[in-house]
Specification:
Number of helices: 4
Shape: flat
Order of helices and strands: HHHH
Strand content: under 5%
Radius of gyration: 17 Å
Helix content: over 70%
Oligomer: single chain
């Protein structure tokens, strides 16, 4: 039922964002300290990547919600399109920044998730 899918999608997005936003804020603010359990050098070298990946969890959740809705609706072409955009975008951007370190690859992941989530957000809003 279309109305049921719309209602559950809205509830899912609200719940997911409600959980993710505080977790992302805590992770971004405390990332350097959290990673100290692996040592100071590790923490100094990786906390920025953890911050980027934490930030990417929000657009990732939006994209995953869209893919789930389209799977339920049996709209396989939409599922394939979004997964293709994510794969090609991430691989292409990662290739372009390959020589600049793992942080730039994390930023490529974030950029791709953000770009694709612009498309999926618009499509999710149209479900109403």
């Amino acid at each position: 039922n279309k109305d049921e899918i719309n209602k559950n999608t809205r509830k899912s997005i609200k719940f997911t964002i409600g959980l993710l936003v505080p977790a992302v804020i805590v992770t971004v603010l405390l990332s350097k300290h959290l990673l100290l359990i692996f040592g100071e050098e590790y923490s100094n070298n990786t906390y920025k990547l953890l911050q980027v990946l934490a930030l990417s969890s929000i657009p990732f959740a939006i994209n995953t919600t869209y893919i789930t809705v389209k799977n339920v609706q049996h709209h396989i072409k939409d599922v394939l399109l979004v997964n293709l955009l994510l794969a090609v975008g991430t691989l292409s951007l990662s290739y372009l920044v390959l020589g600049y370190g793992v942080l730039m690859i994390g930023i490529a992941w974030l950029a791709t998730q953000l770009l694709v989530s612009c498309y999926t957000s618009i499509r999710l809003l149209r479900l109403r």
